[in-house]
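Narrative summary of target 7.
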Amino acid sequence: MIRAVLSDMDGVLCDSERAYMKQTIAIMRQLGYHGPDTALHAVIGTSMRETYRIMTELLEGKVTESELRQFADAYYLAHPVNYRKIRFPGVKEAFEALHHSGIRLACCSSSPKSSVDRALREMEIRDFFDQVISAEDVVHPKPDPEMYLKAAEALGMPPEECAVYEDSPVGIEAGKRAGMRVIARRETGFRMDQSQADELAEDAWQMVEIIRRED
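Modeled conformation, tokenized:
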């Protein structure tokens, strides 16, 4: 029986993966990167620390990681993401339904806590989540299971009674390694491998139906 849903944020609750990728490509082009855009897909689902490491490596010495961070921070500040505008259809209603049915909810994101909190509030869904676990709360980021295990512990739920709602391969792996049922939101834009998920859902409402079916 599923009594808790632990959800990723980017690419699951909102179309932020696409928004972030546009930002990443713009930053890299301005810093002199001439490689294929597809090489940048490696940052999807990773922590900011790993994202900057990958970007610095692809820039092949054009800038230091510190210089990249400084440039990127200024770019993000000048080009903020409008999370309410990119919230996936049905997400607010689906998570409200889970919340009111007594399912415990946690948002588990590799993004910085300040960004996650702002995004959830802009999407008008922050109040539905009992816990928010972000990159700052763990030592080992996804695909390590620490984030999901920590969320389950914070909710007072055993892993076998938790379902993970994810999209990226690293997130799916983290959920599986945590001993949880993993439902992946079907993703086609970046051609990510979602084969390790237990089930695929077209949207948040189909995820809810899968959870209800487990009762």
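The CA atoms of residues 1 and 213 lie 9 Å apart.
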